[in-house]
Every structure is written in structure tokens, then in C-alpha cells.
Amino acid sequence: MTDLNVSPVRTADSEAIGEAAQLLREGRLVAFPTETVYGLGADATYGRAVAAIFAAKARPQINPLIVHVRNAEQAAEYVAFSPMAEELAARFWPGPLTLVLPRIEGCGLSLLVSAGLDTVAVRCPSHPVAADLIAEAGLPIAAPSANPSGRLSPTHAGHVAEELGRRVDLILDGGPTPLGIESTVIGFAAGRPVLFRPGALAREEVERITGPLSAPTLGIVSSPGQLASHYAPHAHMRLRARELRDDEVLLGFGPSAPREAALNLSPSGDLAEAAANLFAMLRALDAKGAGTIAVMPIPQDGLGEAINDRLARAAAPRGAGP
Ligand code: TXA
Ligand code: MG
């Protein structure tokens, strides 16, 4: 039974944030904005609450969650920082960087957040609503993107309401998320920095501190979110399109986009703007019922790496991956 009159969406004022914090302490689920995408949050120390996240998203339990914290001091209660990890946190937190670090035994986090790995992904978000919520709840918050598993990440509260509405106790509406693409995930293998997921912090920025980042070891899915098919709209996708074919809608990029382009990720060719628009525009074109979304080429530098990563996954055969 759907009752559209009991929409759990609330404007993220201080009263609503207080209620959301209370719900989290009671082991319930709250969706909230971060600077990247909306997250589906629960108390990271409470196994049943964390399990409810997996159930709401229909997420495979082999895919671990990011734990959101107030600052590096709080993160250090749960994970062991190397000097390089400390430097990254000092430089980029709060912000769109997730660090995968060794889990401290007996740290109090639910084992489910690590999905059986001996590491935990930690991130300190800069969005004021997320920061206030974490502080007020007084808890580390486990939060994946607030979408059904394998689908496009939500950049508006309405996206969460549409797809997960009845499975979430409260959705804090903080408007569109400013960066629009998920955090960059960095881990370490034998002490060497590894780019697990390109994201809203450009590789070049991270490499200024770490030196060259490696790719995850071939054949080992050390960051399970890197399954091939992910971020999928309902339509098929055709990438690096330069012309429009039958039964396609064109997603443009830059000033050279043809007039037939239904939408343009960034008319001026700005990659930050394109990242911010990516998921919302894919959703909008999907809603038009097109058979295929054709996307113009996007340069690979800066945030282009993360955009092209999400596009490639959106275009991958459905159900691909382990
Ligand atoms: O921007 C973001 O990161 C958003 C907001 C809500 O913070 N969250 C997000 O979470 O994108 P999610 O669950 O959709 O993606 C988390 C990624 C996945 O690729 C997951 O496999 C990886 O981080 N990850 C989490 N814990 C890990 C771990 N211990 N080791 C390796 N990868 C991990
Ligand atoms: Mg996700």
C-alpha cells in the first residue's frame, strides 16, 4: 500500500536534523545530503541498523559501506592511519575523499560495514547538513548512496523519495548536492596508494600528496563497488557519440554539442558542472523513455575520469560483475 501523503521528506532545518539524529540513535534509517550525493544513513555501531541499509537497497552483503565521521580524530577510533593517510585527511577533510584503512579490532563498528574485509572506509563530509547530523547524533554513520543497488546515485531529495521513499524513516532535503558525483576512494596495498574509485576529488589533487596512484590489483575486487555494471539507467547507453541515431536521445557536452542534444552536461565544457549534472540528467533522459541515451565524448582529465567511469558502468552489460 502506497500512501503518498506520508512522504518522509523534510526540509533540513535544525528541528528536522534533531529528529533525524534521534531516529539514527533509535536504529532507524535517515537519508541526508552530502556534498557528493545523498546518503542512506544508519548507526554504524548497530548491526541491525546497518543490515537494514543493505535490505533497503537490496545491496549484496559483500559490498562494504562508508562510515561517515565528524573529523580525523573520530576516524582514528576505528581505523589505523598511516602517515600518508593522515596527510590526506589533513589536506582534504572535510571533503569528497574516502580513505580505506585497516580496521582497529574491537573498534565498536558493526562487522557488517566492512562486509568481511579487515578494512573500513571512512569519510568526513563537508556538507553542513551531514556535518550537523553526525555531530548531533553523536554516532559514526554508515551510509552508501541512497539508491537501490546498481542504480543511479541520487543528487536530489526527490530522487530518494521516488526510489526508496517507503523504506526510509526520514529524508532530509538539503537541495541538490553541489558536487553530484561520489567521493574518491583511496586505499593502500603494501603501503602503496591505490585509486579504488575515481570521484569528486580529481586524481591529480590526490597525487600531489601521494605521488602516482595505482589501479586496484587485477582480478581482485578489493573495492566491491567497482562491479562492472553499476549506476545504470533503464535506457541503454552509447558513449562517445558524435551523431544521433534513431530511438536515441543525445546528452551533450561542451559548446560544440549539436542542436538536437536534449540536454547538455555543461555548455561551456566545464567538468565540475558536468559532474554535478550527470546523474540528474541521466535520470531526466531516462524518464523520457528513450531506448538509448547517447553521450558525447568527455575528456579524461580532472573530474572527467570519474564522469567517464560512471558512464562506462552505466553502459556495461546489466548484471555484469562477480
Ligand atoms: O560520496 C560518497 O562516497 C557517497 C556519500 C553518501 O558519502 N557514498 C557512497 O557510498 O558512494 P557507496 O556505498 O555507494 O560506495 C562506497 C564505495 C563502494 O565502491 C565500496 O565498495 C567502497 O566504497 N568501499 C567501502 N568500504 C570499503 C572497504 N573496506 N574496502 C574497499 N572498498 C570499500
Ligand atoms: Mg553507491
Name the shape in a single word. Answer: globular
Radius of gyration: 19 Å
Which structural class matches the secondary elements? Answer: alpha/beta
Q: Major β-sheet, in short?
A: 10 strands, mixed
Describe, in short, the structure shown.
It contains 9 helices and 14 strands. It has 322 residues and is of the alpha/beta class.
Topology overview:
Blueprint: E1 9-11, H1 14-25, E2 30-33, E3 38-43, H2 47-57, E4 66-68, H3 72-75, H4 83-92, E5 97-102, E6 119-123, H5 128-137, E7 141-142, H6 157-164, E8 170-173, E9 184-189, E10 192-197, H7 203-210, E11 236-238, E12 248-252, E13 263-264, H8 271-287, E14 292-295, H9 304-315
Parallel strand pairs: 1-8, 2-8, 4-6, 5-9, 11-14, 12-13, 12-14
Antiparallel strand pairs: 2-3, 3-7, 4-7, 5-6, 9-10
The protein binds threonylcarbamoyladenylate and magnesium ion.
Residues 144-145, 153 line the site of magnesium ion.
What this model shows, in words?
The protein is α/β, with parallel strands linked by helices and 322 residues long. Helices cover 29% and strands 18% of the residues. The chain has helices spanning 14-25, 47-57, 72-75, 83-92, 128-137, 157-164, 203-210, 271-287, 304-315, and strands at 9-11, 30-33, 38-43, 66-68, 97-102, 119-123, 141-142, 170-173, 184-189, 192-197, 236-238, 248-252, 263-264, 292-295. The strands form two sheets. Strands 1-8-2-3-7-4-6-5-9-10 form a ten-stranded mixed beta sheet, sandwiched between helices. The chain has a four-stranded parallel beta sheet with strand order 11-14-12-13, with helices on one face. Helix 1 (14-25) crosses helix 5 (128-137). The longest helix has 17 residues, at 271-287. It is globular and about 55 Å long. The two termini are 34 Å apart. The protein binds threonylcarbamoyladenylate and magnesium ion. Magnesium ion (MG) is lined by residues 144-145, 153.
